[in-house]
Amino acid sequence: MAFLAAALDRVKPSATIAVSQKARDLKAKGRDVIGLGAGEPDFDTPENIKQAAIAAINRGETKYTPISGIPQLREAIAQKFKRENGLDYTAAQTIVGTGGKQVLFNAFMATLNPGDEVVIPAPYWVSYPEMVAICNGTSVFIEARIEDDFKVTAAALEAAITPRTKWFLFNSPSNPTGAAYTHEELKALTDVLVRHPHVWVLTDDMYEHLVYGDFTFTTPAQVEPALYDRTLTVNGVSKAYAMTGWRIGYAAGPLNLIKAMDMIQGQQTSGACSIAQWAAVEALTGTQDFIPRNREIFQGRRDLVVSMLNQASGIKCPTPEGAFYVYPSCEGLIGKRTEAGKVIETDEDFVTELLEAEGVAVVHGSAFGLGPNFRISYATSDALLEEACTRIQRFCGSLR
Ligand SMILES: Cc1ncc(COP(=O)(O)O)c(C=O)c1O
């Protein structure tokens, strides 16, 4: 009898973490490597948030907390949903987890039975299908094609729904494409969902605050109140407040689902880190000045990267509405040969040869379920981005 669980046969390690590791290994060997693989802001956590954590330590807030989070944070979350999304949730309808990742995982754990289907737009964040697989569910992918600005159509969503569909997993702005749905685009999808009352909506709004220009963020339960009773709205402080290492994510939804997630978390990690929870209270209730400042910086970087990539031969890079990723197509380079004679057959070949030749680490699109593309995280300095894009231009120009 095999020792390891059968579910593990269906789980892959994270390609984004693998790329970051490969870049670190090359750096350790003395190579000049620019890593554009990691999905985290390069900014430091704002000072007021750090001070709130220090004050919490000094007050002795260093003990176990209630499983679903300290009341002050759950209240701050309920108010955030009201203030920013027009959504009415009581504090009891919220849950705090160790990162958005745990919240998503526990939602699947609490709801999926073998054979249950989760409809996931592709390209997708690498962890979604793996979480579904660990929880014995089945991922059903719908393509969000480059021709459609990486957004799924209502017809594709409609066609993917079966009697076994449990969740539609929505992520806007998206990791890995940065695509964000307008109110009208999202309404087309919620209209479909209204017609299928057995389908629940899991919306991952992690990049809510990172949208550019005059784009207005919206979330499913806001666009279609009829979905409120079957929507779990997930969010967190990692990306918006540069708090990836603090590990605080949260969700709000129907009470029964939140209670089920609480039960799982109670037998797993219990409450999230007490100090990080107090820091998150300050993030959500303190000054929000940091957000527009960062947004402006990210927008400048996005524009720089999109413009430079579109000047690379064979690369086509749409301008995304949000997050800190671009997802250019390298289709124009498939079949070409490097100076060393290697033929680029896939996007994975492209990123491998790019790293080899120019020391630029990016992640191949096939890892996110749609290629031939690659993902660049532009959460790094303008100088490094400019240098990386210059190297990409040189590499693409060298292919024959
Ligand atoms: C789309 C998406 N959802 C959720 C997460 C998880 O965030 P957290 O750091 O809060 O676990 C990430 C992190 O990369 C993400 O990109």
Structure, briefly:
Helices cover 40% and strands 12% of the residues. The chain has 2 domains: 6-44 and 290-398, Aspartate Aminotransferase, domain 1; 63-285, Type I PLP-dependent aspartate aminotransferase-like (Major domain) (Aspartate Aminotransferase, domain 2, 3-Layer(aba) Sandwich).
What do you see in this structure?
The protein has 400 residues and is an alpha/beta fold. Strands 2-8-7-6-5-3-4 form a seven-stranded mixed beta sheet, sandwiched between helices. A three-stranded antiparallel beta sheet has the order 9-12-11. A two-stranded parallel ribbon has the order 1-10. It folds into two domains: 6-44 and 290-398, Alpha-Beta Complex (Aspartate Aminotransferase, domain 1); 63-285, Aspartate Aminotransferase, domain 2. 40% of the residues lie in helices and 12% in strands. Helix 6 runs parallel beside helix 7 (183-194). It has helices at 15-28, 47-58, 71-85, 99-111, 127-134, 154-160, 183-194, 220-223, 255-266, 274-285, 290-310, 347-358, 382-398, and strands at residues 34-35, 94-97, 117-122, 138-143, 165-171, 200-204, 231-236, 249-252, 325-326, 360-361, 363-364, 374-377. The protein is built from 13 helices and twelve strands. Helix 8 (220-223) links the parallel strand 6 and strand 7 (231-236). The model has no long low-confidence stretch (mean pLDDT 96). Pyridoxal-5'-phosphate binds at residues 39, 99-101, 125, 171, 175, 204, 206, 236, 238, 244, 249.
